[in-house]
Fold Type I-E CRISPR-associated protein Cas7/Cse4/CasC.
Amino acid sequence: MTVFVQFHLLTTYGPSNPNRDDMGRPKQAVIGGETRLRHSSQSIKRALRESAFFAENLAGHMGVRTKRLYGKLVEHLVKNGIKEAVAHKTAEEVAAVFGKLESAGKESGDKLATTLAFISPEEQKLAYELAESAAAGEKLLKDKDLKNRVLRNADGAVDVAMFGRMLASDADFNRDAAVQVAHAFTTHRAVAQEDWFSAVDDLNKADETGAAHIGETGFGSGVFYHYVCVNVDLLIENLAGDKELAVKALEALAKGLAQATPSGKQNSFAHHPRAHYILAERGEQAPRDLSGAFFKAVEGKDLLGESVTKLEATRKAIDKAYGPCWEAEAKLHVGHEGGATLEEIAAFAGEAARGA
């Protein structure tokens, strides 16, 4: 049977704009007929990958997501004494393994991949080594043979194992994501607001009035519910059976979920929230989220407290109807005695991989 670890988090954000839409305003969604603020799953995964927990705990096991491998290969080869014409030709052959290339512009000799590709540390190393060998005169393999020489199943890249990847040029090396990340949304009605601001010219003469610059920026605040589900068996499989690396990955994920946040407008709003409530569940039952607890928007003065109450009541009701969806749990609740610490939540998550 497959083991799942599920995380349910409630996090309060003061006035902020961590995740913007195409107009620069906080992203929103209509849920249960009410407007809510929202953080996209993509922005949350990016925040996790960029967090100190991933960088420190998983150093050497993180991939890179880029269109710019061609340029990096050219730069590397030229730095090592290879003529530019040879460097460009070689880089093009090797970089094309990860996807079709196109010119970066008429005036630029650079080329970009047409799609972003997740590249594992091992694949990066192989790409550089092959480029060096080819530039030195060694004949490169062709087409499928070259792909099979460079591409791997990204076994050593934890972020690829967690969040998956799609290589449009070769589906054989795609990865199914072991970690499903939902969009976070406010448990209550919340709408974006506008901050009108002005800036004064410091060298403006005393007898001249008016602002040198005026503008608007969007912001919002609220209690966000966030759900994440981990297929522990798939995570271990994606990491080529390395359970200890899977343990580190789950521990880093738990810590990152509690503290990492999308970084939009960070300097303007200084949002650095930490989750006030974390429920972690572990078991072999089919997973379920608890977003239904908030389809009727929470109301009242204590939005955080009411959100916790509704989440736990909904969980109890669903488990009564369908049977328990977990075999073990750990709960962090800031300000309440007897709850787990973040270190204990992380250890709880990691234990799922040790026992799998």
Summary: The longest strand covers residues 213-231. The radius of gyration is 24 Å.
